[in-house]
Write a structure and sequence with these properties.
single chain; alpha+beta; Adenine-n6-DNA-methyltransferase TaqI, Chain A, domain 2; Helix Hairpins; elongated
Length: 386
């Protein structure tokens, strides 16, 4: 139970605002319509009518129970199973209520659902929701602080998407030879996968049982679930004993090795980061060994391109069995610069672009965590802003 400051008041939402569902259906939406149309999800549709021209908080009454997706101020329309909270009391800042509901409404709503064919919330559940409010200036300060976090996070998300589009375009152009780097003019040649790469994998399970997946041990055991943003995450990785590691030298992997999933979600690609521990593979992952004419990092970026993803899509088309076989890989062909220096230069540029995106994603995750902490502190009065 939260101990709020003594000068914060607890009131029912029904005494602080007007609450009513919309009157539109999904079929009323219009592609490219003039006004926002709020339905029972985070996605905002469009419509050519508006029933509201005001400040509001919009909460689904069915599906996504307890989610508070939207604060809006202007002209909009609302689905018949979305509740519009409007006409706020002079003592309540709507943006503060939005943040208070994001933090507290979910657990409350799940305890109030009415079971018919789907979980749903009725009007009394909204009216009886307890809202704890500080003095109005503090509400404004809290809302401004949390909105600033949200704005920065959203700006980072947009920047990340922009950087990804630029990187993906560069991947397509550079690994195909469509665009050449300054200072390189040597020829490119087409080679087959079979002539340039030797895939290695665990042969069956080799008797490896689930109870041999250890929480700590001699060697990392890398599986497809450890692939994360083009590399390997070690946060929840399993381990195996020395005997299991020594069993097969072909799948003992090192920093810089290129890995590809061959079971389940096939064709995921990762490059092993710098590691200070031995590592081996479970049965769902290939390690690709390269011959001297191709750099591992250049191969990695070929596998990150549409050439490889399209190849995987064609293999998977119409199939219910998701497995990548060595015989399938023999069909793959691609072009490479004959100059290893050009391969390295291309890989370095793309890796640098990827690193920039990864840094931005880490910054975004940091701010998401900071926002969560700020919500806990500010919306309980643990930290006072006024």
């Amino acid at each position: 139970m939260v101990n709020y400051p003594k000068d914060w008041e607890e009131k029912k939402l029904g005494n602080l605002a007007f609450i009513k569902t919309g009157n539109k259906n999904n079929e009323d939406k219009v592609s490219g319509g003039k006004y926002p149309f709020y339905v029972r999800s985070e996605k905002v549709e469009r419509i050519n009518t508006f029933s509201y021209d005001t400040e509001a908080i919009l909460v689904p009454g069915e599906g996504n129970i307890g989610s508070v997706f939207h604060y809006v101020n202007g002209k909009f329309d609302v689905h018949q199973r979305v509740y519009a909270i409007t006409n706020f009391s002079d003592t309540l800042n709507a943006k503060y209520l939005y943040w208070f509901m994001i933090k507290n409404f979910g657990s409350y709503a799940l305890s109030q659902t009415s079971k018919a064919t789907v979980d749903s919330l009725r009007l009394p559940a909204f009216k009886n929701f307890d809202v704890v409010i500080p003095p109005f200036p503090e509400q404004q300060a809290i809302a401004d602080a949390l909105t600033a976090f949200d704005t920065h996070i959203n700006n980072l998300a947009k920047l990340i998407e922009k950087k990804k589009m630029i990187r993906d375009g560069a991947v397509e152009d550079l690994v195909s030879g469509k665009r050449r780097l300054a200072g390189f003019s040597g020829k490119w040649e087409e080679i087959s996968f079979n002539d340039s790469v030797i895939p290695k994998a665990r042969i069956g399970w080799q008797g490896l049982k689930k109870d041999e997946y250890l929480q700590s041990g001699y060697s990392y055991l890398i599986s497809g679930t450890d692939f994360y943003r083009g590399t390997i995450s070690f946060e929840e990785i399993s381990y195996v004993s020395k005997d299991r590691y020594d069993m097969d030298s072909n799948i003992q992997v090192k920093s810089g090795d290129v890995l590809v999933t061959k079971d389940g979600t096939i064709g995921k690609v990762a490059i092993v980061p710098n590691i200070d521990k031995r590592a081996t593979l479970n049965s769902g992952v290939f390690v690709f060994r390269v011959i001297e004419k191709i750099k591992r990092k250049f191969l990695y970026w070929i596998l990150r391109s549409s050439l490889f993803s399209n190849f995987i899509d064609e293999l998977s088309a119409g199939s219910t069995i998701k497995h990548l076989y060595q015989k399938d890989l023999k069909k793959l062909k691609f072009v490479i610069p004959t100059s290893l220096s050009e391969q390295q230069a291309i890989a370095d540029i793309l890796t640098s672009m990827d690193k920039e995106i990864s840094d931005l994603e880490e910054e975004k995750e940091k701010y998401i965590a900071l926002k969560a902490g700020a919500m806990d502190d500010l919306l309980t009065g643990k930290i006072r802003l006024v």
